[in-house]
Amino acid sequence: MENSRAEQQLALHGSMKAVTRIEGKGKPKIGIDEFMSVSERFGFSAKTLDAIRKAVEKEDFGDGPFLGNYYAGLKETRVQAFERIARETFGVKYAVGVSSGTGALHSAFVAAGVGPGTEVICPAIGFYATAAAVVTAKGVPIFCDVDASLAIDPSKIEKLITKRTVAIAPTHVMGTVCNMGAIMRIARKHKLRVVEDCAQSCGATFKGKRVGAFGDLGCFSISCYKIVGGGEGGLIVANDKRLWERANQVAECGGLWRPDRFALPRYESEIFCGTNYRMSELEAAVDVVQLKRMPATVKRSNAVKMRVLRELDTFKEIVPQKLNDAAGDVGYLLRFFPENVELGARIVEALRAEGVSCGMRGHSDAPDWHIYSYMYPITLQAGPHGPECVYTCKHYTDAGGRVQYARGDCPVADDLFDRVINVNLNQWYTARDCHNIAKGINKVLSAYCTPDAKAAKWL
Fold first, then answer.
1. Rounded Cα gap, residues 263 and 3, in angstroms
2. Do the beta carbons of residue 247 and residue 254 sit within 8 Å?
3. Tens digits of per-residue pLDDT, 148-186?
4. Terminus-to-terminus CA distance in the chain, angstroms?
5. Percent residues over pLDDT 70 in the chain
6. Domains of the chain as residue ranges with CATH
7. Less Cβ crowding at N or C end of the chain, within 10 Å?
8. How far is residue 209 CA from its own chain's centroid?
């Protein structure tokens, strides 16, 4: 009898609701002050900031924006728009926006099968993050020498392949491109995965195809340090759905990428413990605009470099950087090799006096994590709790794995990294700017070198 009376009093059965409205109303979690904080980072004057605040104070922010990729209540979040534009731009089926280029590499290496007992062939020149991500994925990086392009030398890859090798990680350095045709032939011949590191060459092409779309997975740094991006961000692209899903599982350990987040795996090894490399809506809001601009940025940069190169004379003592595809080069650096460091030092000093922005490493002993011999966390085989276990892991040693690193392992890289002269270029240079830079280079090289019509060509 008592239960029946209680049921009759429930709103479920027609009684009045206990809660008809909520009186408490606060400010949105993210509102005007946060918006103004972002506005300040654009460097607006105090007068403009005051005008912006007065304008936005008239708006009702409601509950404020939700700045995550999921549950935002939008038809398309900024992260999703960024990934869509990436698919369209690079001509791939799948894309994942992540928090950094390093996060992209780590996720991609795990997706590609890197783990205990495995090796990945990495270039001797390129930022340390590539090899570091291999170790983070519990693999062992094996450094391969470079050629005059400063990219991995395809002719030296096969001798490094062992039964432990699972992937090759070509790095497109400083706006240039690797010989992806040769690399892919080697990889397919030996049934190896290819993880492209495109951090320094976003938008570059090889034979008309964007880098990142050749390998099984392409990784990008989309950040303030690169020609595309602002703040910190990254991108993974792929054409294989399973690889995309595995990369997602590393980057999004929570499983939010899955149709049913908490469900049992749909297939073996679909879910496993990963981390969190999610891209935020704030980063994506900037990067989606940056990525849209990328093709035009690359076109302008390449045009500048080609204008300068076409006006340069040839000299006996100068070898230009090999360009695997001049038309696909991003073009923000012009590089060449004098016959020795001493000559290079004189050339750099004279070029700077002529107003040409340039530099050369020379006989410096300062550590630089862009060349294998100075990548101390790798070369010292250091781990967070003592020696890094990937090198002593039984999966590795029982398979015959043993590696030591030292300068001299990659002699071409050692030589060229010290000798290369880097001339800085800018996408906004006019035709006259390009002419004057070429004129300055010719003037200096003519003073210190021997003109030779038969010497190595710039193009």
1. 38
2. no
3. 999 999 999 999 999 999 999 999 999 999 999 999 999
4. 96
5. 98
6. 27-66 (no CATH), 78-290+382-396 (3.40.640.10), 295-367+413-448 (3.90.1150.10)
7. N
8. 17
What is the Cα–Cα distance from 413 to 321, expressed in whole angstroms? 13
Which residues face 382 on adjacent strands? 387
Q: Which residues pair with 195 in a beta bridge?
A: 217
Amino acid (1-letter code) at residue 142: I
Of 105, 190, 100, residue with least CA distance to 141: 105
Who contacts 451 (Cβ-Cβ below 8 Å, separation ≥6)? Answer: 313, 314, 315, 316
Q: What angle do CA 361, 366, 371 make, to 5 degrees?
A: 70
- Cβ–Cβ < 8 Å for 244, 214: no
Q: Let me know: does 381 contact 393? Beta carbons within 8 Å.
A: no
How far are the Cα atoms of 93, 151, 383 from residue 209, in angstroms, in the given order?
15, 18, 38
**Token pair 């990680």: residue:** 169
Phi, psi dihedral angles at 342 (to 5 degrees): -60, -45
Query: Using CA atoms in the order 109, 110, 113, 119, what is the torsion angle rounded to 10 degrees?
Result: 50
Measured distance CA(118)–CA(112) in Å, rounded: 11
Instruction: Give me the residues paired with residue 276 across strands.
Output: 252
Partners of 97 in beta bridges: 235
User: Which has the minimum average pLDDT: 191-200, 259-268, 431-440?
Assistant: 259-268
Name residue 30's amino acid: I
Q: Could you write out the three-class secondary structure of the chain?
A: CHHHHHHHCCHHHCCCCCCCCCCCCCCCCCCHHHHHHHHHCCCCCHHHHHHHHHHHCCCCCCCCCCCCCCCCCCCCCHHHHHHHHHHHHHCCCEEEEECCHHHHHHHHHHHCCCCCCCEEEEECECCCHHHHHHHHCCCEEEEECECCCCCECHHHCHHHCCCCEEEECCECCCCCCCCHHHHHHHHHHCCCEEEEECCCCCCCEECCEECCCCCCEEEEECCCCCCCCCCCCEEEEECCHHHHHHHHHHHECCCCCCCCCCCCCCCCCCCCCCCECECCHHHHHHHHHHHHHHHHHHHHHHHHHHHHHHCCCCECCEEECCCCCHHHCCCCEEEEEECCHHHHHHHHHHHHHCCCCEEECCCCCCCCCCEHHHCHHHHCCEECCEECHHHCCHHHHCCCCCCCCCCCCCHHHHHHHHHCEEEECCCCCCHHHHHHHHHHHHHHHHHHCCECCCCCCCC
pLDDT at 74: 81
Mean pLDDT for 181-203 is 98
